[in-house]
Amino acid sequence: MSFSAAWAKAFFNSIEREGLEIEDGLDTLRALASRIKSLPGVVFGRSAAEKLEKLIRDGMAKVATPPSFELASRFLILMVRKNKFRHVNSVIKEIEKLVNKKRGIIEVSVEYASTLGDESRMIEAIKKRTGAVKVILSNKQNLELIGGYRIRIGDEVIDASVRSQLENLEIRLAAGDGGY
User: Fold this and answer.
1) Closest by CA position to 71, among listed 115, 121, 32, 116
2) Residue 62: exposed, middle, or buried by beta-carbon count in 10 A (0-12, 13-18, 19+)?
């Protein structure tokens, strides 16, 4: 498990353990991280974390904060203290993936050679294959594929491109079985 995935899972589990709404926690985390990024100077180490904690506590005393604010602020202060704040964007992306997984939403990227064709048919096939409730499809043209498409669903890649079929045929011919 990557560093960002581990930290994201820790945040996600903390929010759930406290009985808070993950969307609120994620929104709070994004807002606080954005605010911290806008601060002048270097944001890492114990002294920076102590200054940041004081700044956040002072801010909390002045305005009403959502229940997720305490948890999100402690999480970000820990990231600063451990000199990991530079990874906050990738941690947030990993949390978004966990939220989507919980909701049954998967993100799929499709690379195609010329035209993608019927997206709705592809989305329905992906839903059926994965059991997802919703599919978020991002697609882009990739002229290196020659023809066909390549689909990435999480860690799985379905390569139905002409280029990969030609490469596979070349390997089989070189091995002497002719692909038969």
Assistant:
1) 32
2) exposed
Regarding beta strands 105-112 and 134-141, do their DSSP bridges make them parallel or antiparallel, or are they unpaired?
parallel
- In the predicted structure, residue 42 carries a pLDDT above the cut 70: no
What per-residue confidence (pLDDT) applies to 159?
85
Task: Report pTM.
Answer: 0.68
> Which residue, 166, 143, 167, 140, is CA-closest to 151?
140
User: How do residues 52-102 score in pLDDT, each as one tens digit?
Assistant: 777 777 766 566 577 888 888 889 888 888 888 889 999 999 999 899 888
Q: Residue 28: CB partners within 8 Å, gap ≥ 6?
A: 66, 68, 69, 72
Strand order in the sheet with 148-153: 134-141, 105-112, 148-153, 156-161
The C-alpha atoms of residue 9 and residue 161 are separated, in whole angstroms, by 35
Mean pLDDT of the chain: 83
Contact of 57 with 13, CB cutoff 8 Å: no
Give the span between the Cα atoms of 117 and 134, in whole angstroms.
Answer: 19
Classified as helix, coil or strand, 111 is strand
How far is the C-alpha of 94 from the C-alpha of 1, rounded, in Å?
11
Query: Which H or E run includes 158?
Result: strand 156-161
Of 100, 101, 78, the residue nearest 88 (C-alpha): 78
